[in-house]
Design brief:
This protein is an alpha+beta fold and 91 residues long. It has two helices and three strands, in the order ααβββ. The radius of gyration is 26 Å and the shape is elongated.
């Protein structure tokens, strides 16, 4: 296929062709990435503005971080603890 294309199109036109393809692909990928980031950054269930987070509870065995207000769980998040999560952590 490239042999046929080289005979029909001079090298300058060939460069412009590949440049156009490259720019088009870059535009498609960047637009898709922006749309994905925009949709994934908005929370479907935001924390109420009236809630005061007074405790952050981390359950290492279940690998869950829970935000609490007045003893009630407001929101929970899955967390990663690294390669060796057992035992007490010291700093």
């Amino acid at each position: 296929m490239s042999f046929f294309y080289n005979k029909c199109h001079p090298p300058n036109e060939q460069r412009m062709y590949w440049l156009l393809i490259g720019i088009s692909l870059a535009a498609i990928v960047s637009t898709s990435a922006i749309a994905y980031a925009k949709n994934s950054s908005t929370s479907k269930n935001p924390i109420p503005t009236s809630a005061v987070i007074d405790r952050v509870f981390v359950d290492k065995s279940d690998r869950v971080l829970t935000l609490m207000s007045d003893g009630k769980a407001i929101r929970s998040y899955r967390i990663a603890l690294g390669g060796s999560p057992s035992g007490h952590k010291q700093q």
